[in-house]
Amino acid sequence: MNITDYLHAKFELAEILRVAAVIVHKQSPDILYPFEDLFARLADDRFNVAVVGQFSRGKTSLMNAMLGTERLPMGVVPITSVITTVQYGTDERAIIEYAERRLPSHIKLEELSEFVTQHHNPGNEKGIRFARIELPAEILREGFYLIDTPGLGSAILENTRTTEAFLPQADAFVIVTSYDSPLSEDELRLLTGLRTSSRRCFIVINKMDLVDPDERRTVEDHIRQQLRSEQDASPVEFFAMSARDAIIANRTNDVAKLKASGVPAFVDRLIRFILEEKNSVFLRRMAERIDAELENLDRTEARQRLAAFMARLDYSDPSSVANLMTRQATPRFARCAVCAPVEREILQFLQTFQYQITIDERAREGLSADGGLCPFHTWQYAALASPHGTCLAFPSVFDPIIKGVRSLRQSGAVGPDRVLQQLQDNLTCVVCRLRQDAEQRAVANVANRIARTLSGARSDLPDICLPHLTAVVSALDTDTGNALLDATADAWERTADDMRRYALKRDGSRRAFTTADELDADMRGLRALAGHASLSFVRRVQR
User: Fold this and answer.
1) What does the domain layout of the chain look like in residue ranges?
2) Confidence band (pLDDT; 50, 70, 90) for 71?
3) Which class would CATH give 46-261?
4) What pTM does this model have?
């Protein structure tokens, strides 16, 4: 099971609950929101990874390295007693939550130090409960919350107290120490407390770029000796790394240097822990809770689906973990690259056309010869035109149509329905013709753009809706077309996941926690399936 499999397993549990909720509501109509607490638990599920350690160990540098970014402020001296959470957001921003009943403050990331440093907020006199940073990092989108804690052993006693008070909320602990002074007294005391309480923790020995191989071995042997001294405690793994080298490697896209930094191996192990030890337990417990709730239902469909789900869970493969650090970000579908220019061209045409047919008799004659516009473009025209313009331009459109309808009485052997169909077939629409030509140009332009940019990141490939995908792929060579198909499928899958996330959070009354990706997922999904609304109609063009 990988992160994506786990997410889809949660969606499947939510769907089982929805099936059961319909049955419950039929049996007890007074229950408006059956299983809301279970939906909420599924929606709230996340992986809290607390990064702790003494000040100046490089905790924030490690988090930047894990996220492949340099946006978290490093070298802030010293941090106040404020917990900082780092989570996924469509756009980069920081949010300050206050202990008192005040509205949160939305600030730029560069302004964070004014709220969380001792210099600007001594003793946390501003009453900040915690700071929340949102970043568009792929590992965060999968449910990871990185928690940056105030430094242990700080001269500010409140910092240590705040960190220790937060610890019960964490799923895993990353104790960051360094090769220049490994495992201080405060770090060792924290480690001892976590191990005796059977809490899972990992030790990161940072700054290996500052010592030679012999010094590294000496430090690592010293840490092994300290870990062995507590025989009854839970096991602890430690990882040697250089967050600084990883940040440089991310900046230069140096895959070999990134691997040598030790950060990807640590992230991979952290994900394995989350999937194998925490999430499998969470899914099983949720399935058992749901099964208990469904026990008294009249129908067994939901319970049968749940039993099948639990059977598959028993045979899940924990070896399929994918390293999120090296996985390329999935493109976000927004709007079709073919639909967008066609829409613009049609709008520009109609803006001119609706005026032209009021002043130019030849333009009105052409409109009459076409039989007007198709129904769809007639109403698009009406949205731009005035009643006066419509009454000037469209009476002549009726003349040939009326003549054709009157001829039905003289149709002879051909039935009126056939004559009406022939009349419809003879009509055309100038905007439909324009749309057809504009689409052909847009497809060619998009295909050329894809061919030029394919050597870059897949995220640079344009969004293509399902109605236009065949035309664009047909204009490309086989390899390029296959690359576009892969990227498009990934983008659609991401959109579908965003739609499911939104639905789950709404079912669990957690709409306040939806991301911008999820808030507009409904319209993005429909545009991916059907193209843009202004282009979704049957064209009236003579063959």
Assistant:
1) 3-43+279-317, 46-261, 347-367+377-427, 433-535
2) confident
3) alpha beta
4) 0.80
